[in-house]
Amino acid sequence: MRGQRLFWRLFMSYLFIALAALMLSGWYGEGILRELYFDQVDASLEARARLLIRDAKPLIESGDYQAVNRLCMAQAEAVNEGQSVRTRITIVLPDGKVIGDSDKDSNRMDDHSRRPEILKAFSGEVGRSTRPSDTIGSDLRYVAVPFAVGDSTYAVTRTAIPVTELDRTLKAIRRNLLLNGLFAAV
After folding, report:
1. Can you give the C-alpha Rg of the chain in angstroms?
2. What is the CATH number of domain 48-161?
3. For all residues of the chain together, what is the average pLDDT?
4. How far apart are CA 119 and CA 125, in angstroms?
5. What is d(CA 55, CA 97) in angstroms, rounded to the nearest whole number?
6. What are the beta bridge partners of residue 153?
């Protein structure tokens, strides 16, 4: 009888320690998973932005901004074909003027020169940020790529996707990991 009580006390202590360790490693693992997932999304958004540079360059140099806007819309349609997550594409000049956008009329958009990802891209590096969109009012993940000729950046291509879609995917992954963990524990 006494041995049985000791067994249950030890069992419950070890069970608590094991569950606490499992929860801690799950929390830590989720942070790593989120970071890896965002890195993958950033690489995809950067590749999409770079696809546009070759085609947009002559249009920007000629000053045909209506054609740039049409190109953004056409490129977004091509990129989004068959995808569950819609990519938004924007092209910005150094003065912050938007000359192309796949979702909104670029002539009615405000100055983008102070957006963090745009500032970084105009410094010659790829810019990334997650923040609310002033134009559409929801959180987006942005990646901005500079158009450079020599040392001079003359425009930035920015791509973005809704963070809600990223969170939905991460939630599904988290749920599957939890179910698999529970299954393994049983």
Report:
1. 24
2. 3.30.450.20
3. 85
4. 9
5. 19
6. 148
Q: How many helices (H) and strands (E) does the chain have?
A: 4, 5
CA-wise closest residue to 143 among 157, 122, 164: 157
Angle at the Cα of 134 (from 133 to 140), degrees rounded to 5? 0
Hey, what are 100's tokens? 């192309």
What is the Cα–Cα distance from 144 to 140, expressed in whole angstroms? Answer: 12
Cα distances from 28 to residues 24, 33, 168, in angstroms, run: 6, 9, 19
Q: What is the amino acid identity at position 182?
A: L
Checking if the pLDDT of 183 tops 80, the result is no
Reported as a single tens digit per residue, the pLDDT across 107-123 is 888 999 999 999 999 99
| pLDDT at 81 (0 to 100) | 72
Residue 37 DSSP class: H
d(Cα 179, Cα 173) in Å, to the nearest integer?
10
Supply the DSSP string of 154-170, one letter for each residue: EEEEEEEEEHHHHHHHH
Tokens coding 77:
């349609």
Burial 68-106 (b: 16+ CB within 10 A, else e): bbebbeebbeebbeeeeeebbbbbbbeebbbbbbbbeeb
What six digits make up the tokens of 60?
Answer: 């920007």
Give the contacts of 96 (CB within 8 A, at least 6 positions apart). 111, 112, 113, 114, 118
Percent of the chain with pLDDT strictly greater than 70 = 95
Instruction: Examine the pLDDT at 57 and tell me if it is beyond 70.
Output: yes
